[in-house]
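WARN  no MSA supplied for this record, continuing single-sequence
INFO  ligand: pyridoxal-5'-phosphate
INFO  echoing inputs
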Amino acid sequence: MDKDSIKESIKYELLYTFAKDIGQATTEELYMAFALTVRNEIMKKWANTKKIMESGEYKTLYYLSIEFLTGKFWGNNIINIDDIEIYKQVCNELGIPFSQLEEYENEPGIGNGGLGRLAAAFMESLTTLNLPAYGCGIRYEYGLFNQKIINGYQIEHADNWLSDRNVWEVECKDEIVEVKFGGNIIETWEDGRLKIDYRNYYSIYAIPYDIPVVGYDSDIVNTLRLWSAKSYNDINMDWFNRGNYLKASEEKVLAESISKVLYPEDNNPDGKRLRLKQQYFFVSATIQNIIKKSKGKFPLWALSDNVVIHINDTHPALAIPELMRILMDEEGMGWDEAWNITTKTCAYTNHTIMGEALEKWPIDLFKEVLPRIYMIIKEINDRQLHRLNREGTNDWEKIDKMTIIAYDQIRMANLCLEGCYSINGVSKLHTDILKKEVFSDFYAIFPHKFHSVTNGITYRRWLMHANPGLSDLITDAIGTRWKYDSHELEGLHKFSEDSAFRDSFSDVKRYNKQKLAKYISDKTGIHVDPESIFDVQIKRIHEYKRQFLNVLNILYMYDLLLENPSRDIHPRTFIFAGKAAPGYYRAKLIIKLINSIANRINGDIRLNNKLKVVFLENYNVTLAEKIIPAAEISEQISTAGMEASGTGNMKLMLNGALTLGTLDGANVEIKEAVGDQNIFIFGLTADQVENYHKYGGYNSKAIYDNDANVKKVVNQLVNGFLSPENSMMFRSLYNYLLYEEGGITDRYMILKDFDSYRHVHSIVDDQYKMPDIWWKKAILNVAGAGRFSSDESIKNYNSDIWHLSKMGD
Ligand SMILES: *Cc1c(COP(=O)(O)O)cnc(C)c1O
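INFO  complex generated
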């Protein structure tokens, strides 16, 4: 669209939706008019894509994920239809700040962190690559809570993101599906076949809401389909007529609670009944929808030639028994035929190896909520046992690890390994650990099922949208081809030697830092020096991610400065952001700890502004887009072996921050991509951590006793230094470091890695004092980031696992 047609459209939408002209319109109305204008540009392609997909001509991917952390739609969609300059001009000419419209949109917070963000990036890349796909998930009415920091503590507020009209979704009432829960199963034999009679169940409707997924300069528009729960009996008239109004609406409230709110646990399932219902709800709706669309287009025995069902972590693993159920109970197939189809259609991505993060469901709960699905899982389990016996496996330890049902629990990862044709890890290291340790027994039997696909990020959102200054600088240097092929960023290599380019590069960074400094001052009142090093750790607050280690080093730097205030260090600003699960006590205490240190340090004039600590509240995609372009150090300091991939690390590298991290997840590949000179690596390796864990840990008390600086820092947790009002406040963190807990002391190896960590921080300080060297390294990080585009991940998924054809080819 050209400028004039955009203006026309905006006037039209304002007039015919709100009966106003531009001068009268509120920000909300202006946003709506602009959003509808962009949406109109998308609609024709979307309708066309849907039509082609319905023809059944193309094999289609269904990407099932319990979270999609999309970020805001409007600005990114404009980038992707390549109209950003025009829209900015229109805003200018109409005197409406573009940023004000962007700010107005609510971010759909329907994901916790990396897993949900990955699903959203994959949908965008699939579309960019013209591959036909549906993203399938839940339309949570309330997303992840909004975080406020009050008195240093995290306070949670409900995220009512749908309170305003959501112009990006379309309700598809004609594709409503019935999902059944509870009840009991009567089995009878009829003509030699088992007949399943499902009685006394209760039904809930699933209504799909479709959101267009716009790719960069793409021929197609894919669909993100989110299911919303609706009561079967909107109001139970029986009760209503008897005058019991409350009882009458109770059923409705209970039914609709299924899609009411996103569970806020990241990497820590909590086995709640409602969560199980959520999982079955969106999986059953999706699989029923797939089968319905398939019939008439191709015979169901050919399902795997036409459909891939991808299971993003184990949350949608019920796709396996649900597909079995439909093929057998509704389509009349026998077990073997149904199993053959299912195991050729479903593929699974594992996202974690931490035992406590692997999903398990108590049998009793499961049987009650999903009696038929339980029977099918039991049968899969029994057949697996038979097979293992037939194959002569009598190693009981091995069988014990592989079975799906054990110790009165259903182990969802094992269900996926049995029922999928593919399982992949999300970085090289992570896949190696899956093969060698967590799933080694499965790997011995099904080596062909294992793949490795490293996670990725979308360059449209994290560079073109979030950092237009850097994006333009890159284009000036190497042209626009990098926008289509991320490997073209390699072309920046030679510019790392070009001092004029280095100056422009550092100018962009300085500008972004000034902008963030202003944001920090507006939000927190803290004044940070834009010339200081912006050292950033932004991610969910979790023990394995070790924000605690970062804090201990800040305390250490603080102590050194107090000893000698004229110590020659480059000023440093530590920036944190992240949410803790509301029930995760220790993670919340770490937030309080960060804020206590911030309070103490920011107010200490003896430091001459050499150290500042900032905690920005309510980390989400929108906040990440503000922080990342200004970052110079990217803290990726998880205990080695525990972060499956990480994607925050990739976003920061792409924006010219240097990684300071352990050899964990994708950090290993970042090191390969940039070379040892351009990354700061410290700490134990995954093998070393694994070894310590095998032999009961290490002696943290010895480190504490033998290093006066460590002792001082650790003691400051409990001597009132940080919390004069209550010196006991951080006692449990102190105890964690020095005393045994569940058979091990300091499970996350914080004191063990401390020395190496503070050492690498001093190297950072030395190198920042040499700007030529620093900016060269930063540029080489951008140049090496090409392989971490989600386009690359999707190409690998497609060639190794999915085998889809491009639409139009
Ligand atoms: C990228 C991203 C994450 C994942 O960050 P990690 O550092 O990989 O844990 C989490 N939350 C948001 C909002 C993100 O954008």
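Residues 56-71+107-455+795-802 form a domain with the Rossmann fold fold (CATH 3.40.50.2000).
INFO  checksum written, moving to next record
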